[in-house]
Description:
mainly alpha, 2 domains, 5 helices, 66% helix
Amino acid sequence: MKIKSQRDFWSGLLFVIVGVAFAWGSLVHYSFGSSARPGPGYFPFGLGVLLAILGGAVLFKALTIESEGGQPIGSFAWRPLVIVVAAIVVFGFALPRLGLAITLPLLIIMSSMASDEFNWRDAILSSVVLTIGSWAIFVWGLSLVIPVWPTFIGA
């Protein structure tokens, strides 16, 4: 069998592997429950199965539909990967100390810098909108205990 699209093949295979791993992990580590009383493994199992089905569809497409030049996999984008992972690590360490009001804009601006189309105005606007939205949903709406302000302010 000939792979007709390298990109679709490898992304579909990755989707299937991650989906099966999540479905299997949810069955092994959590109780499944029933449809009437779902347990903690019910939702992750469903998402894992859906991800594996999606990956299977992408794999099928990669093996059956001819693409231009086989769509080879290009070079790996290391810079954006490192910047986004670093932003997530900084967010995890900074949230308890600096609060949501400073840490979330820091995460958004750092992640935005991974793009070749970075624009300060757009990054700051996104930071303001997402920070207010996150506060409204998680702190105000769901009453989650997330520090909003830095610990040195004490608000």
